[in-house]
Amino acid sequence: MLCSSNSSSSTFTCFASLPKLTMDGYNRDGDLKPMDAEQFREHAHKMVDFIADYYKTIENFPVLSQVQPGYLHNMLPDSAPNHPESLDDIFNDVQAKILPGVTHWQSPNYFAYYPSNSSIAGFLGEMLSAGLNIVGFSWITSPAATELEMIVLDWLAKLLKLPDEFLSAGQGGGVIQGTASEAVLVVLLAARDKVLRRLGKNALEKIVVYASDQTHSALQKACQIAGIHPENCRLLKTESSTNYALSPDILCEAIAHDVAIGLVPFFLCATVGTTSSTAVDPLLALGKIAKSNGMWFHVDAAYAGSACICPEYRQYIDGVEEADSFNMNAHKWFLTNFDCSALWVKDRTALVQSLSTNPEFLKNKVSFF
Ligand SMILES: Cc1ncc(COP(=O)(O)O)c(C=O)c1O
């Protein structure tokens, strides 16, 4: 047996009985060489066994790591080892030193923050991705990466029944971001630059962002990075009578007040599934207000968006038709490894204008915009 567990003490013991591997960075002649394909095959099998056994026994661990801050410092040497170590030794270290410091997000008993569960299919995809190690910063660096990303995001947009403008066949399309925080940042930058192209750069002090006080703090951080004046990020008060959703009336009042004092409303972020209470903002009404005030309307469905592929939950993103951009986190609730946040825009021009560079080494025969 490769793995035994003791549920009373939550221990997890794998590979203790395995013979010492000979394939520890030295080849069979004792020379220090990178692993070859056969060594990889052997080690990878053991790694898969280790992971499979971890999942079989995951409920034996306390979900929340019990270690104290700085625990690992005392357990590891001050500098990196000079010589390679065997995989057995590494597994022993992982069991003794790393697993105690892991909070087990994948445990079925994990209920903090939000779900962030992957799946075995997700692990296999990650393994392939690690093995191919594609660097996909332009089409030519791996055409399959760019094209697969576009195709799969079109599929996902169709599953979510997003309006056709979000599909890549027209002016819009989807792109994978690391996190929802990045997604909101890039659309905020696009919207900022779009409004500043119209008003001139000096208007930066005057442009205003709106969202509810339940909105994820990623928006505030994005405002800081984008140079939005700290007083111009309006997190409008919500209350229990609206289930903590943003009230269209309160938004209208705030916009009217800001316009009256010479400020320029330019960005509204609504949320479908707020982090603390899964509140759902009324997209249709908010979107119409944004449109009538010439604002960019972003819908952050990072948390709850995955559910909306189910016909019975699609209603929660009704009104997304009004949005300029929409994101959901595949890494939250879509059985996909962290990190993978899907972002769609209806018109990629502003995004491309705001964030593109065009050095010689990035030029290639395909342009998607
Ligand atoms: C509604 C919402 N928006 C944004 C985020 C930020 O997500 P990420 O960790 O992918 O940046 C979260 C994460 O909790 C969220 O729940």
UniProtKB/TrEMBL annotation:
Pfam families, sorted: Pyridoxal_deC
Keywords (A to Z) from UniProt: Decarboxylase, Lyase, Pyridoxal phosphate
InterPro entries (UniProt xref): Aromatic_deC, PyrdxlP-dep_de-COase, PyrdxlP-dep_Trfase, PyrdxlP-dep_Trfase_major, Pyridoxal-P_BS
PROSITE patterns in the record: DDC_GAD_HDC_YDC
GO cellular component: cytoplasm
Organism domain of life: Eukaryota
Names of the cofactor(s): pyridoxal 5'-phosphate
BP GO terms, sorted: amino acid metabolic process; carboxylic acid metabolic process
N6-(pyridoxal phosphate)lysine found at: 332
Transmembrane segments: none
GO MF, any single term: pyridoxal phosphate binding
Keyword Lyase assigned: yes
Family to which the UniProt record says this protein belongs: Belongs to the group II decarboxylase family.
Alphabetized PANTHER family for the sequence: GROUP II PYRIDOXAL-5-PHOSPHATE DECARBOXYLASE (PTHR11999), MIP05841P (PTHR11999:SF70)
Name of the protein: Tyrosine decarboxylase
